[in-house]
Amino acid sequence: MSLPFNSLYRFDEFELDPSRRSLSRSGASVPLSSKAFEVLIYLVANPGRVVTKDELLKAVWPESFVEESNLPGYISGLRKALTDRAGCIATVPGQGYQFTARVQSEEVVGLAPQYQPQDLQIQQAQMMRETTHYVIRETSPVLAAPRPLLRRWSVWALLVVVVATAAGIGYMVHLRSEPQQLSKVLVGDFLNLTGDPAFDHTLKSALELSLAQSPYIQLMGAAELHTTLGMMQKAPDSPLLGDIAIEVCRRENYQALLRGKIAPGSKWGSDVMSVEVVNCTTGKTIAELHADASTKDTVLSTLDGLAVSARRKVGESNQSVSEFDVPIINESTFSFEALQAYNTGSTLGENGKLLECIPYFQKAVDLDPKFAMAQSSLAVAYFNLGDTKKANSYSKVAFDLSEGVSQLERFFIRYNYHLMTLHDLDSALSDIQEWTRVYPRDDPAWQALSYVEIQIGNYPAAAPAAEHNLQLSAVKFESEYGNLADAYMREGRFADSKRIIAEDQVEHKDVAVIQQLLLQMAFLEHDPQAMQHAIEWANTHPEQWISLENQAIMAADLGQESKSEALFQRTFQDAIKEGQSALVDSMTLDEAAVDIDLGEMAKATKLLGQVKDHTSANWAVLATKAGSTTAADAYFKLPNEYPQGTIANKVLSPELKAVLALRHNDPLAAIALLEPSRPYELALPEVIDVRGQAYQMAKQGAKAQEEYQKLIDHPAVEEPTMPKTFLAHLGLARAYALQGYKEESRKQYETFFNLWKDADADVPVLKQAHLEYAQLRP
């Protein structure tokens, strides 16, 4: 069965144009993925009739086997796109789907892709690179640029993937006024007739590097390509040549295919390179670009000239080409062998083979020490492997070299340097805001923006950025769903978070991080059935220690000290069994933190003594809270490892100084010392609790009330799950009592007692609360 492409369909205020692959509502474009669009075409072309699932699968995927379970995800996406008209697509249980809206159609004869005229004469000075000669043969008009769509940047080493679900100044940036639109381009493999295998993949990668500079060209990313090849029942590494390249291009609605060739030239030692620009819809050649490379050393400069010409042929303006044109030999490397090694390393890195990719990146920087992206990629690989010393060294070199690279690579290098090496979230945020401004369709940039906004506690900005990332992404990764679900949860939008998780579960397998979010929300919503479901899932999957630690902390949050202690012991055992012994220190710090909240200072002190590293700010804060008089002084005598670190210097250090001031009975000093943490307090809400204690000690009940109310209003912001929401009711009760509001105070004590109805009776903080409440009885 084939899809109907020769008709125009209208229903309600929608217009569906299969030939242009567009859906609009009252003239405004409605974005859809390629396959969702084809599903909609078939349903709209068969209105009122029940279309079976089998029929729909055969129509949309005629030559591929696709499981029936994939359909609900596409139907769900269509219903979301149709919003209040979602009911147009009805599910007929046990059969299939029915399009219920009234459809008007008209046959359009001679439908063809849109073209726009463009000056085909390019000045020789603009086209020439040294040692290069170009010949251009035009055979059809230049492709018109379609409406703005996604442009994928395929560099593998984006730091945002280091933490799957980890924050506002920057989301509402003004996008540049763009007179031209986006061209979707697939770069095929080069046909190598030289007999030199070095050219097999490197030329394609070099061409992509040059094209990727442009904000107006969308290149197909590796994930999208592999998904499409899988739908075609082809191996992921199938060469993009001939009919395979054309079919990939057409399936994903790309406008142009660039396919290259390199062959021995007529002169001894020279090679002839050509790049053919093909209209994917018609299969006709738009332009053929030829150039001679006298030696292997001139191959990159030769290819760069072809790339500049190709960018113009697919519709990019001369102004844009001029603005975003750093030659490959400056942008990346002068060494063909270095680029070849970098390309191999990148391929390994994209497949998660960090140890294997390092020797290739190392070879690239050995051949060309000024190869900035290779230096940065080495840094990220080492960082992901836990070797921060090497990561920082390579990242600093890359940063120092970043002035001469393309804008896109500069954003990547500087963002990683500020975030990974300096821990400077403010500078990383500035980097990523500019990144999204210049490359507004670069979905990894939006994911990075949402990640940083989460890290600084700016959840109202994090969620829109994560939404935009998911909207742009051609192939939606689990980390993108997780990022958005996490942002929603921290903002308190539990229903939205669970909706995104449900979509993720349709597309991907469940992972521990997702179940952790579900467990946390179930706990805060007092939903024991949902909690049990998440716990049972974790019991049968790897990384059970994630769930066990959350359960341990939740038990402590309910005052169940004995249960919490037993769960922590199981957490340690499971982490060690799964080879995560390096996490034991951080888990011990978490257990000490909950013991301090429960008033068990002696237990906390004992646990802190078991921690191997006594140099962290977190250890010093907890030790000082537990009663140490020397931990803070010892910490401040240490060299500042991250002098520009945002959280270390603007949150943890002020918190430590404030806790020390409280130990010296100086609450006013503590309040002043905590002031730098205010912009980031939702990232580490324990500073809100310390500020509330300081206001209490200073007898400023109204101010203390404001702080504890913040904690109650933001129950899901802490990581791991330590909702001080429950203890905040106790703090609020004390704040009301300071102001003489006895009735309000009693109500907060009673709320706290109800939350702790199953608590261990001998927990110190509970015993103290009962004594205070007794004094308020009328």
What does this structure look like?
This protein is of the alpha+beta class and 778 residues long. The strands form 3 sheets. Strands 9, 10, 11, 12, 13, 14 and 15 form a 7-stranded mixed β-sheet that branches. It has a 5-stranded antiparallel β-sheet with strand order 4-3-2-1-8, with helices on one face. It has 35 helices and 15 strands. Helix 5 packs across helix 8, helix 16 runs antiparallel to helix 17 and helix 19 runs parallel beside helix 21. The termini are far apart.
Global outline: globular
pLDDT under 50 segments (min length 5)? 109-179
Beta percentage is 5-15%
What integer is the average pLDDT?
A: 82
Task: Summarize the entry for a quick read.
Helices cover 54% and strands 9% of the residues.
Topology:
Elements: E1 7-11, E2 14-17, E3 22-25, E4 28-29, H1 34-44, E5 50-52, H2 53-60, H3 71-82, E6 89-92, E7 96-99, E8 103-107, H4 124-127, E9 134-138, E10 183-187, E11 191-192, H5 199-211, E12 217-219, H6 222-231, H7 242-251, E13 256-264, E14 271-279, E15 285-293, H8 299-313, H9 318-323, H10 328-331, H11 336-350, H12 354-367, H13 372-384, H14 388-401, H15 407-421, H16 425-438, H17 443-455, H18 459-472, H19 478-491, H20 494-507, H21 512-524, H22 528-539, H23 544-557, H24 561-577, H25 584-598, H26 601-610, H27 617-626, H28 631-636, H29 646-663, H30 667-673, H31 686-697, H32 701-713, H33 725-738, H34 742-755, H35 764-774
Parallel strand pairs: 10-12, 10-13, 11-13
Antiparallel strand pairs: 1-2, 1-8, 2-3, 3-4, 5-7, 6-7, 9-15, 13-14, 14-15
